[in-house]
Amino acid sequence: MKVFTYSPGGIHPDESKLTKNLPFEVFKSPPIAVIPLQQHTGAPNTPLVQVGDYVKVGQKIGDSTQTVSAPVHATVSGKVIAIEERLCPTGAKIQSVVIENDYNDEWVELSPRKSFEDLTPEELVKIIREHGIVGLGGAAFPTAVKLTPPKGKVIDTIIGNGAECEPYLTVDHRNMLEYPEKIITGILIEMKITGAKRGIIAVEENKIDAANLLEQKIKDMGVDNVEVVLVKTKYPQGGEKQLIKAVLKREVPSGGLPLDVGVVVQNVGTLKAITEAILEDKPLIERGVTVSGNAISKPGNYIIRIGTPASFIIDTLGLNRKLRKLIFGGPMTGIAQSTIEVPVIKGTSGILMFGEEALEMAPQDESPCIRCASCVDSCPMGLMPVLIDHASRKNDLKTAETLRALDCIECGVCSYVCPAKRHLTENIKKVKQAIIKQKKIEAAKQAAFEKLKAQRAKEKENSQKEAKNG
């Protein structure tokens, strides 16, 4: 089987896939579930319950009228004991619904289906939206929005993302080995929604067992418009733009999205969740999480309820040494936590725990740039991180934007390879945020100006009418 890849850039860090051969285990539900009302890219939800209410598993407890949003559901049954701001893995304090588990595991009534074929694309998208499905690769973008491209955008290919290029993480690998039929069905559902004629499941070559199994299942299911392709094992092969370039040789334009080149890329875990929403009527109340690192006594892949605090996971699995670093996500793009009292959310693909050795992973003191161009050679977006970093330090937003800072995918490769230990990714993130903030301010000023302009034009028109009538 041919192996595809992209260029330029990319690296191959130590994979550390310690849990790749460990099947999923269902993790017990927590005594207290903390469910943030915003676990997705987009508008926050408004609570649909009050303190003191009894809720069932799968009950919708937060929603929004905004287009770019996704509702959240109760993940345990019991009483709502608080609705308050709680710290999330993103580092922000988010209004959250706190539920005391009664351990009855009482579900809302579900209505499973035998097939999706009799549903229209609009009905399928509505179900996906109502069941709170978001991208489970980490970005947590609302899936229903992703599957509803603007008019004029034609989608011809759905790519199932099974690359999972982050070190340590193995949850996607296990999904492909344990739920291949659900992943294939998820692609077929998305193909019906978008009208795409071709489905591809891209799997890194270090997961050949998953690729072979998916190929066999595609044959067993009699599917002739979905194929499996191998991609080179390197980071960040699983980035949407990198995967599209590797598999289809199409380049997403600067500032553009995959739909601009006729593609929707979906994490394999998301495809599984879509199938469960459509056929089992199951909201997104749990997800697969890789728990790994040298400080956890029982690493593995677990099906964990959303809202489960990290402290409960640690108490259940145990530590074998003093915990010095807790990361939600992978070591390249994940976020180090300041407390163990943060909950699993929809975007939590991994929880990594490290001991004393983690001090070596901490940001080190910078030294002057030696002009080696390692960051330029390794950047998967073909950017010049060192120059964007210089612009960021000078707060020169115009130059940073000219250097395409907004195209940075924040993969962390530039910081990883820098021999001077420059905080490149961190500074590029900062300047990106500043550029986006400035653009919002400018857009608001322009909108206010246009409003004032229209108001004055109306006043002038009224004055002319009065003068004419007078």
From TrEMBL:
Entry annotated with the keyword Lyase: no
Alphabetized UniProt keyword annotations? 4Fe-4S, Cell inner membrane, Cell membrane, Electron transport, Iron, Iron-sulfur, Membrane, Metal-binding, Repeat, Translocase, Transport
Copy out the cofactor comment: Binds 2 [4Fe-4S] clusters per subunit.
Give the highest taxon in the source lineage: Bacteria
Sequence positions that bind [4Fe-4S] cluster 1: C369, C372, C375, C418
Q: Where is the 4Fe-4S ferredoxin-type domain?
A: 360-389, 399-429
Q: Which GO terms describe its molecular function?
A: 4 iron, 4 sulfur cluster binding; electron transfer activity; metal ion binding
* Principal localisation: membrane
What broad class of enzyme is this? translocase
- What subcellular compartments does it reside in? Cell inner membrane
Cofactors per UniProt? [4Fe-4S] cluster
One Pfam match, by short name?
Answer: Fer4_10
Q: How does it sit in the membrane?
A: Peripheral membrane protein
| GO biological process: one example | electron transport chain
In which residues is [4Fe-4S] cluster 2 bound?
C379, C408, C411, C414
Q: Which GO terms describe its cellular component?
A: plasma membrane
Q: Give the EC number(s) listed in the UniProt record.
A: 7.-.-.-
Role played: Part of a membrane-bound complex that couples electron transfer with translocation of ions across the membrane.
Q: Which family does it belong to?
A: Belongs to the 4Fe4S bacterial-type ferredoxin family. RnfC subfamily.
NCBIfam families in UniProt: PRK05035.1 (NF003454), rnfC (TIGR01945)
Q: How does it assemble?
A: The complex is composed of six subunits: RnfA, RnfB, RnfC, RnfD, RnfE and RnfG.
Name this polypeptide is given: Ion-translocating oxidoreductase complex subunit C
